[in-house]
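Exercise 3.2. Students should predict the tertiary structure of the chain below and write it as structure tokens, then compare their answer with the key that follows.

Predict this chain's 3D structure.
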Amino acid sequence: MKRISAGLVLMLLCTFSILAQNKVITVSGRVVESDSKEPAAQATVQLLSLPDSTYAAGIASSNQGWFTLPKVKAGKYVLKVSYIGFRTKLVPVQLAANAPDKKLGTIALEPDAVMLKEAVITAEAPQVVVKEDTLEYNSAAYRTPEGAMLEELVKKLPGAEIDDDGNVKINGKEVKKIMVDGKEFFGGDVKTGLKNLPVNMIDKLKTYDKKSDLARVTGIDDGEEETVLDLKVKKGMNQGWFGNASVAGGTEDRYGSNLMLNRFVDNSQFSLIGSANNVNDQGFSGGGGGPRFRNSNGLTATKMLGANFATQTEKLELGGSARYNYSDRDAISTSYSERFVNPSSYSNSNNKNRNKNTNFNADFRLEWKPDTLTNIIFRPNVSYGKSDGYSISESATFNEDPFNIRPNPNDYLNKIFWGTPDDPFEKIRVNASNSESSSESNSLSANASLQVNRRLNNMGRNITFRGTFGYGDNDSEQFSESLTRYSPESGKKDDERKQYITSPTKNYDYTAELTYNEPIAKATFLQFRYKFQYKYSESDRSTYSLIPETNKDQDWFWNFGDGLPEGYEANKDMNLSKYAQYKYYNHDINAGMNIIREKYRLNFGMSLQPQNTRLDYKKAEIDTVVKRNVFNFAPNVDFRYRFSKVSQLRFTYRGRAGQPSMENLLDVTDDSNPLRITKGNPGLKPSFTHSMRLFYNTYNADKQRGMMAHANFNMTQNKITNATNYNQTTGGTISQPENINGYWTAMGMFGFNTAFKDKRFTINSFSRANYTNDVTFLYNEDTQINDKNTGTTLTLAENLNGTFRNDWFEFTINGSINYNFERNKLRPESNQEPYTFGYGASTNVSLPWSMTLSTNITNNSRRGYRDASMNKNELIWNAQIAQNFLKGNAATVSFEVYDILKQQSNISRSMTADMRSVSEYNGVNSYCMLRFSYRLNIFGNKEARGNMRQGGFDGGGHRGPRGGGPTRMMHF
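Answer key:
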């Protein structure tokens, strides 16, 4: 019996040994989403043996999309990869015993036509669909005039805002980069993309939070994610050359031209862009996004030329760009403000500025994967800039509101009126100043970063080194002449200054960072990071008086515009010159945990930051060395709960410390501007800001209905603000930084969009509420101390629009209201409830003979302002008619008319806890333009050309989907 038992055991051991010897082959690879190139976390990977497709091995991909299957034996298999919202992919695999390590490389999954459902929807293109924290907009659902650029399309997106400086916010989050098919476009520069990417090349727009290179590769959240706008090019355009070119001329000496030439072939992109215009890049306003007041803020002529490329293989990604920019801005402004002191102080000013800027920028990106375990990313960039500026300023400060005496007080600010019978403000004027200046500067900067990541196993253990280096060199000089006159009661003489100022600065910095990710349980990771940072900066401002001094045998006389006189170096003003050298050392020690589950993801940690700073400072009689050692900490939490593929809840919290500048800690007075004197404060404390954000969204594919909600809260402890003492007799101010508590802001927004049963009708609503509790110090003349003042602003806003769209006609009506409740604790007489509202309509009509008509009209209104001149209406009407011709409608002639009724103004307004101000700028808003555009389409094969014609690029890029047409595949 014992012999039989021993034989059975021996036989079993032999059997297991044979089986073990057969299962010697490891299969590994990585799963990514084809559109965003993001890793497909927790994708199901199965190996099925042929011919009967029986299960052989399986595993879920890691957080970074990597997978390594349990060992299997040689044979023929098929690899099945499935992931919610994406098409299941089948990959034939042949395994041989002499190749024990089978690497499949990157497996890209295509988005499913209908996420979460095995159905095909026949309908109009939905305006927006949701997938977790990604919003996807269909370009075909938003019509824009012929030849429109990306900026005009973004204006129509629900929840999108573009301010007067070209900054884009979508659902309250600022867009930091623009990408094309997942690749950075001109380094991600937002303004370059807005002004140069034509709408007719765009199929879809996606906005999402893109992780930094470090977080994407390691899975460690470094808090540096940024909101991006990712454009998907129309199908077929990656098969050859395409582009747009246009030239336009108009009334008021307006002109505009642009060129864009692209070659997209599979995973390679090349783009050449150029433009020149003097219309402030205004573009044709399609009326989307709700009515609003738009400010031109001067006249700007720009020229730009650039090239961008991107290419990708299985192991290597390359990309880069170079661009030249030139701008010439001519701005004329009139301003007036009220400072909330006791009693109030009033200031008026006129300014003329001419600034010419030349910039060259180049950037490069390399991502190399020499093997399945190693990732290397290298990003260098360099930039050079040159600027020339000229300005004239006239200003005055009054102890009463000058508008109570004359309706046009800004007409009397020039010194030719001072002390003359024609001066109506002599009794209330506290000071007056006229100045003229010119400046020139040159700057050079270079930066580079290198990141090397190595996976240590297939469970998520990895280590990463990251290093950065930055260098900057700036040299500037300025000539200025000014005259300041005070009221007789002040007892001060006129202050005349003629100065030459040089301000060379140099800086460099570097960082070295090491991160480590350790799996401690299934889909649970400990994260450690250490970063060392060193910064060095040096500035040497030298100020020379150009007023001759007789005791120095100086017999020259300098007028503005003259060159430097001989011997000017002897007139160096040591009180207005200074030298500063900073050395900054920072250690960042971070520990965190990342927990990933099917329904939720939690990331939390703490960063400890000991800092050491040294300042060498020289000014007049001061020659000092200041050292500071501080200890900062920054907690963070990021929690995401996924209800479904199209619905999620996300909460984030971040705390961060802010240190006052070293110069603010010096007990030094800067009186380079006699009316704006500043002092340091050695007793300043660090500030600490708490930031919380809550986000929820959901989407119903059947009803094409989406909802999203945001809530943000920010509070700053020991906020650093300026306590300003106002001198009633001179009208000047002395400002000193102080810590103050009580500052916080809260914001909530709700977006809703849906199609009706008849999908040709859609409605969008975007509601927003903001509350700001601003605090500052106001100097009390009676008590001679600073009183804490609180200014609160509650803003309630609503944007609503509805659209009807069929295959040849689109009509949109829109309305908006923005109501503000402004309260000032110590100056209740300044309380007001201003509000703006607007309503309008826009239409795009496809006429016979390849002709299109686009027009919009909007009435903008202001009410509730204490300044009656602000309470006004502006009826803005724009129109365009365009005719397509040539084969495939490749050419277009359009006639565009802007502000037909000539009612648009350029007024901006701001209010804080200690003052309010209003400014009005010059601008040309009303003009006509005749434009010729040509589209180039040269695609690689017949199928691609057919797809492009069906996609509507050949003159039909704005027709949109046709009701009752063929089935449309939708992405949710």
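Discussion points: The mean pLDDT is 83. The longest strand covers residues 345-371.
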